[in-house]
Write a structure and sequence with these properties.
Belongs to the binding-protein-dependent transport system permease family. Helices cover 80% and strands 0% of the residues. The protein is mainly α. The chain has a domain of 152 residues: MetI-like fold. α10 packs parallel to α11 and α11 runs antiparallel to α12. 24% of the residues are buried.
Length: 312
Amino acid sequence: MPGADTRRSRKAADARTVLPDAPRGGVDLDGLSTGLDALQSTQHKGGARLGGLLLARVLPPVVAIVLILAVWELVHLSGVKPDYVLPGPGAVWDALVEQWYLGTTLGVIGQSVSRGALGFLAAVAIGTPLGLFVWRVRPVRTAIGPMLTGLQSLPSVAWVPAAVIWFGLTDTAIYAVVLLGAVPSVANGLVAGMDQVPPLFVRAGRSLGARGLRGVRHILLPAALPGYLAGLKQGWAFSWRSLMAAELIAGSPEMGYGLGQMLENGRVAQDMPLVLATILLILCVGISVDLLVFAPLERYVLRTRGLLERAP
């Protein structure tokens, strides 16, 4: 019919007006050029973003360290305290260099780090099943849940006298203090992570056959990983602090020479530069473990859950 043909021709003309025909049988040089320009601009933007990322992550800590050292030096030069009470950054640096030339720095750090790592791994091995048990069995949670929270808030140094009486001046006493300080944090972190798992995940896992230990392994633990990782991070902090307290009080030549014993020797000798240098070493170890171990794990967990964008 003529009217139908006329309407079809008008629709075709309107379509060509809105969406022009693409080139047929050839290469769209304009589009190719535009794509290459976009790729080049993306590469330049990626380099700019990388430089901006480095400035954003490296520059602020460097500026903060410089400001702290400047304030420290100004307070030292003001004469508020005598030099033997408040030495300047230069004297503390000289103490670090002296310990390095004596060949004791790496051995002392290695002794404390090995103790801290072993105690932390033992705390994870004990605290993880304990947290699962407390979360799974409601009467047990009601009975010992507040006790775990209380133990977590108890200063670790309070356990040192009891551990020395129980085990003597041995490594066992040090590890006992570390475990008593770290296990409650690991267990409470896992319980908190389990509480945040949506019940829908558990029901979906059961419908797929993930029950019992399989459900814990494949459903609960992966879903509770952010909270569990926060508990592990806090557990390491408690392990490191407990270790320093134990080495500081319960040190002896037979037990080896760690950072805590080095700090105590500086106090006995009234060597304030050595005391501050040891404090800086303890602080650097704690920051290094967080940056090299826990920060990458945390970024990976957040990125896999879509909570953190990938770096350019």
